[in-house]
Structure formats: C-alpha cells, structure tokens
Amino acid sequence: MTFDEAVGDYFPDLNDSNVTKGSSGRLATIGGSAEYTGAPYYAAYAPLRIGADLSYLYTHPDAAVVLKSYSPDLIVHPGLEWDLIKKRMDFFDGDLITGATAIFAHWAKMKFPDAKCPKTRLLRGAYAASRFIRYTGFSTYRSHGRSMTASDMINNIGNAVRHFERPCNQV
C-alpha cells in the first residue's frame, strides 16, 4: 500500500453544490478536568482550523467554563453523564495531531468510500495529518524558534492549509 496522494488532495471541494454545514466534518472530542484543559482544547480546535465545520467537546463539568472561554467556535458540553463516559472510554492524550488525524481520516473516508479495508482510510488520514502537522510545526519553528508553543502552531494552521490546498478547492 502506498500513500502517493498529496495532503491537499484530502481537502473537500468547497465549490461542490452538495456542500452543507457539517459535510466537511463534525467531530467530537471527549476529555478534560478542572486541572487538564489544554490538550482537549487543542484536539477539538485544530480540526476547525484545518477545515472541519463543527467541533463538539464533551468534558467534565468543572472544565466546561474554562474550555468555553478559550474559543467561541467550540461547542462545549459539560458531561451530563460523565461517570458513564468514564466507564466506557479509555482516556488518552490529545493534541494537535489527534484533531488533525480525526479530520483527515474523515476526509479519507469521503475520498475513498469504496476502500476494502476501513483501516486503510484511517491510515491514509493519519499519514496526511502527520505530514500536515509536521509542516505546521516546521514553519512555526522558522518564525518563533525554540519559544514556539502549541498556540503558535494553532495560529499558523491557516498558513499550512493555504500551503497544501489545491487551487480548485478554494472558493
């Protein structure tokens, strides 16, 4: 299996007449606590900056106000059934690459709807996401040096999108 397509090939065509709110991706992130709000924020916010339409963040009630204050673009839900969610989910770290992988995996599913193995679409999405975030990191480092932070990378995602996006996908 080879992944020869370019990262820009994954971006949905915004000129398609069937494009509606949500067709470029609706994602959900689960995570956070009163002490732990950064990684869930980045995991939920990065897909929006890359091109997803909606990003829901389900979090512990103690973290909801803090997370809502980070960005009005996120749809933050205090976990009404937080104890049930904790019992059913294995929690893991999330950051920019997690969110990028989610949106690129969604776009890979749209790009390769007839793939024989669904895991192939996930792998293609993960590969495109890693290339995208790697470029974002390198270009952010060029401008900020060692003082760069995840927030600097978030602010640079638009430049990375413009770098990879195909001219035919631009409105």
Task: Characterise the protein shown here.
It is an enzyme of class 4 (lyase). It catalyses: (6S)-NADPHX + ATP = ADP + phosphate + NADPH + H(+). Its EC number is 4.2.1.93. Keywords: ATP-binding, Lyase, NAD, NADP, Nucleotide-binding. By secondary structure, this protein is mainly alpha-helical. It has one domain: UDP-N-acetylmuramoyl-L-alanine:D-glutamate ligase (3-Layer(aba) Sandwich). The protein has 6 helices and 3 strands, in the order E-H-E-H-E-H-H-H-H. The two termini are 33 Å apart. 36% of the residues are buried.
Question: What is this structure, in a nutshell?
Answer:
This protein has 171 residues and is mostly helical. The chain is built from six helices and three strands; from the N terminus they run E-H-E-H-E-H-H-H-H. It has helices at 38-50, 61-70, 82-88, 96-111, 118-144, 150-164, and strands at 26-30, 54-59, 75-78.
Number of continuous helical runs: 6
Structural class per helix/strand content? mainly alpha
CATH superfamily placement: Ribokinase
**Strand order in space, largest sheet:** 1-2-3
* Uncertain ranges: 89-94
Order of helices and strands: EHEHEHHHH
| Rounded mean pLDDT score | 84
Per CATH, what is the topology? UDP-N-acetylmuramoyl-L-alanine:D-glutamate ligase
Share of helical residues: 40-55%
Please report the distance between the alpha carbons of the first and last residues.
33 Å
Quantity of strands, as a count: 3
Total number of distinct structural domains: 1
The major beta sheet can be summarized as: 3 strands, parallel
Strand content: 5-15%
